[in-house]
Amino acid sequence: xxxxxxxxxxxxxxxxxxxxxxxxxxxxKDEYERVVEILGRRPTGAELAMYSVMWxxxxxxxxxxxxxxxxxxxxxxxxxxxxxxxxxxxxVDVGHGYAxxxxxxxxxxxxxxxxxxxxxxxxxxxVRDIIAMGARxxxxxxxxxxxxxxxxxxxxxxxxxxxxxxxxxxxxxxxxIGGEVVFDSCYQGNPLVNAGAIGVMRHEDIHLAKASGxxxxxxxxxxxxxxxxxxxxxxLASETFDDAKPSKRPAVQVGDPFQEKLLIECTLEAxxxxxxxxxxxxxxxxxxxxxxxxxxxxxxxxxxTLDDVPLRDSTLSPEEILMSESQERMCAVVEPDKVDRxxxxxxxxxxxxxxxxxxxxxxxxxxxxxxxxxxxxxxxxVAHDGPVYERPYARPSWQDELQADDAxxxxxxxxxxxxxxxVLKLVxxxxxxxxxxxxxxxxHFVQGNTVLAQPEDSGMIRVDxxxxxxxxxxxxxxxxxxxxxxxAGAQLALAEAYRNVATTGAKPLAVxxxxxxxxxxxxxxxxxFAEAVRGLADACQxxxxxxxxxxxxxxNQTGEVAIHPTPVVAVLGVIDDVAxxxxxxxxxxxxxxxxxxxxxxxxxxxxxxxxxxDHLGGLPPQVDLERERLLAExxxxxxxxxxxxxxxxxxDGGLIQAVVExxxxxxxxxxxxxxxxxxxxxxxxxxxxxxxxxxxxxxxEVRFNDMCGARGLPVTRIGVxxxxxxxxxxxFALSLDxxxxxxxGTIPALxx
Amino acid sequence: MARVVVDVMLKPxxxxxxxxxxxxxxxRLGFEGVSDVRQGKRFELEVDGPVDDxxxxxxxxxxxxxxxxxxxxxxxxxxxxxxxxxxx
Lengths: 752, 88
Description:
The structure holds two protein chains of two kinds.
Chain A: H1 9-14, H2 29-39, H3 45-54, H4 57-60, H5 65-73, E1 81-83, E2 90-95, E3 98-106, H6 108-113, H7 115-132, E4 136-146, H8 152-172, E5 176-183, E6 192-202, E7 217-222, H9 231-241, H10 257-272, E8 278-281, H11 286-297, E9 301-305, H12 318-323, E10 329-334, H13 339-348, E11 353-360, E12 365-369, E13 372-377, H14 379-383, H15 398-404, H16 416-428, H17 436-439, E14 450-452, E15 459-462, E16 470-476, H18 479-484, H19 486-503, E17 507-516, H20 523-543, E18 547-553, E19 557-558, E20 561-562, E21 566-575, E22 592-596, H21 607-613, H22 625-640, E23 646-649, H23 654-666, E24 670-672, H24 680-685, E25 692-696, H25 701-711, E26 715-721, E27 725-728, E28 732-735, H26 736-751
Parallel strand pairs in A: 4-5, 9-12, 17-18, 24-27
Antiparallel strand pairs in A: 1-2, 2-3, 3-6, 4-6, 7-10, 7-11, 8-10, 9-11, 12-13, 14-15, 15-16, 16-21, 17-21, 19-20, 22-25, 22-26, 23-25, 24-26, 27-28
Helix pairs in contact in A: 5-20, 7-8, 7-10, 8-10, 10-13, 16-26, 19-20, 19-22
Chain B: E1 2-10, H1 17-28, E2 40-47, H2 53-67, E3 73-80
Antiparallel strand pairs in B: 1-2, 1-3
């Protein structure tokens, strides 16, 4: 049997003319030439594997970087921010010595290929980011977007995704407290499966991904390394270097939540004993990423012996080991005299741990295989100095036409009867209908600290049992708004998440974002991306909530057709005492309903225009960030001082959607009066931003009105909590039974 | 009546947490010498009528679309011999 010799650095230097499959690995010609230039020779197969995967769009952010810089440049001064962009996740101070880390990421493509495992490993990956910061994960959230609700492929993808999220999260014992489910045919073939997680720690427990201190050991621990997710590297392995190998490795990774649970406990115990100098989880790009990032963020270099990596499949080539995306693995840097104790803890938790290398006092990342040096690079060139593209972008030619197609001119209901029918149709439409069938498959209350979960405006977790300190998180994004105006759409996503957090009584502190877009090679998509980032950065600056991290998912498109630009924004807030939270559900009959904010005729991108007219055009609702800030302040004060008993933010579906949800959740109806100066249709269905509806006990009416008046927030009394129907005086009444059947029957009928 | 057996196994490269759990339990129970365990599923289908090529093609189709998740699993279809004479 003839084997080609191991492609060592020496061999590469001696054989400069060997052709490498750089194109198959996704590198462009000029990128490959750049690698050759950096190294001063052709790369070895292992080096090529590392560069190709670390310079991919997913890992290098090469198309998005030039725009994402704004999140740093425009970052508002915030005392709460302890760790900002660039680490595994951002960290925010929430008081009493507690810090909270949170982040949202995408796992879109894997979830389309294999819905269960794709979604499950998405949860696993984001949870490891949280552990890597030194925090104990306490909750997860999942913003999801699928194709049309009645499309056959949605019936394949959605149940798998939901079961995967539930299966992994429930096994880990993490409550799922929020997220969204949106249907739109633009996501057909490109479902968006975003996953977020929150972790809690003490300030002094923050850990960073860096390898410092020559002589310190690099320990790989967790699952064995197998051939997961290395479709690309197998080309390198099978066609160029060793033809005897199986040529096709699966791109699908399978998760093992029980292994992840052990990883959490084992890592936290090692943190507690202060055994860890630096730490990094293994996600996309596996060991390539972990070693190059740890080494480049630290003070020295790193030497790794790849033979020591525990394998699940002994036939793996070194290139494949470097690129493998096997789940449930972490990499820690540990001082030599603490290694024994670290390994002891791993053994106690039944976690395989192996010293695979050490930190050196040089500045190179060197990797050995069978005694030969197969990688010798400056780790910065792999991890940080990837290509940066200033991709051309241009406002698409159809944008003007889209905006001119004004939704406000669509035919409106002419009679009360017609209005009633449309309202009923709206609350039963897949996007507005109750998602309980989906969210009830997740465990909301495990760990016993969940204060609010779906369908509340934001999820809320108690952090400190003694004081009642808690955090709230909301995720929002409206692709329809963003399609009409990406700048405003991104701001509206932030405004809604910010408002949702405040509606439950928490003060918004910081932002994480997951930016889902089509191909950056399309100037129109790139323009959408640039506008959305600019809008989000500007709005974060104005609202004083810095972006702490997140993720960009590009190439979400089928052929030439991209998804709606979909920036998903997560806002994290803090509440001093979770007992003061404000729920969505109506609490008591007789309480007065107030509408906070101004209502304009705004139907562009609205749920009404979609459900009734299948229309998308015009302009999204206006953004007024100062109003959002004022509204939030009022909602937080009112919650703290016990002036309101329930509150619900107004967003898609408008006022009637919010009132119906509060009524159904509370089992109490409402009588509404159309305020002077508004017609019933606009009052009920407009989607003007910066609004909320609150229920005020009669005893608090004067105090509440005085507060709003003193601060200049428009407030309108619109009715009272009463009876067992939602009645709009002079227009129609819908019984709660009828509404419940419509609102809660849709999703089970489509998917169960 | 004939019996057709469909065996479904995770593809060799795919992680098998269940198999690993079994493998880890074996030495604890005193069974040494087993270095790897992979766990699969076996379906026994009782088929009406003759198991001809058409019937097998149909079973292949149902196995591919329903019994196995071919993104991560492989399957084999085999006809089990009549047992009547083999008894005793």
